[in-house]
Amino acid sequence: MTSLATTTGALSPTDRSTPRRSSERARSDRAALYDVLDAALVCHLAVVVDGVPVAFPTVFAVDVEGPDESGTLYVHGSVASRSLRAAPEAEVSVTVTVLDGLVLARSGFHHSMNYRSAVVIGRPRVLTDEAERSRALDLLVDHVAPGRAAGLRRPTRKELVATTVLALPLYEASVKVRDGGVDDEPEDVRAGGVWAGVVPVRMTGSDPVTAADVVDVPVPEHVLRRAAELR
Amino acid sequence: MTSLATTTGALSPTDRSTPRRSSERARSDRAALYDVLDAALVCHLAVVVDGVPVAFPTVFAVDVEGPDESGTLYVHGSVASRSLRAAPEAEVSVTVTVLDGLVLARSGFHHSMNYRSAVVIGRPRVLTDEAERSRALDLLVDHVAPGRAAGLRRPTRKELVATTVLALPLYEASVKVRDGGVDDEPEDVRAGGVWAGVVPVRMTGSDPVTAADVVDVPVPEHVLRRAAELR
Fold this sequence. Notes:
Two copies of one chain form a homodimer. Chain A contains six helices and eleven strands. By secondary structure, chain A is α+β, with helices and mostly antiparallel strands. At the A-B interface, strand 2, strand 3, strand 5, strand 6 and helix 3 of A face strand 2, strand 3, strand 5, strand 6 and helix 3 of B.
């Protein structure tokens, strides 16, 4: 995958995306943002639909060589989808969350999750330029399965018309990371008798299941690699 | 875990939560909702903060014996958190998403994910009743690690004051499920030459890591069970 971690620059150009609490969990460097975006398979696009904020799960991709100096986040969906129709008229946000562990403390209060999470805020741009749309769609496929887009046919005119792609600059974002072990009250540690620790969790893949109508095509290297990475 | 699947009843009492597209992916039964809620470790709470819809990852729990006939969804967080402070004044939503597979088609257009996702909409209630708060906090711990709450000390007054718990009735919800194999264009299947299939994915756990300051307490059964379930 593209080495996202090499791009640098401060996040949170405005106050609203500057975390006000749990500041020990906040990360202000761009490398932390790219790390979360690299690790996640899907994002949640938050938009207001009929007056109610709703988060929709969807695939995404990052373009470090896109039109925005800070990098560009692409999300896509059907032209008919309510989430994407509502989006361009107002500011929206995209949340990406990666779970790393269950933090099981000696008290309910100190139970937590280890996670990495990023929120990107901005006014999305609907892609109209054919070249940018085509590049974004390839990146969306390659985010799910790196190396896959190059071996596919080009989208048809009908497919392009049916797909909305939104671009959000990776300009304003906040990143939170909770890692490490349990953070218990000293008196609970002294009292003893209760187990505490972390159960690491991660998204894993299993053996690719070839479609029944595939004839004489072995599982390609990029698919095997992806399944192994997620293992 | 509580057998959620036994509760029945229609979802989508109003039009806005009735899916308008991808209707083949929509599920209208309550069992499908409980299945998603059972399978997920975290949710995304969508609220409007400073005019922008934002989805925050957080833990949640379901109470089928709670005050709402349709079941109650609890989310919690710090009293100081922006997401929870903003919530009670307006309708919010909670999205729960479980990823099941990468659907790798012969065209970029038909790439997809296998997933189960639920959106619950409502005006949240801030829990003030001590008994309900206490029960909700136990359920939140047990959602992450079933069976754990019973072995923990009760929350202190200070801890209770510092925690906001929101309740959302499981009354208005929409559920979407995409499962099965690749759905390619017939001409792409006929053309051949491109592999297609599904890479199953799931959240898995690994061996519990005991905190360094735990003395003479073995890993409890409920933790081993949880780690194994997520395997």
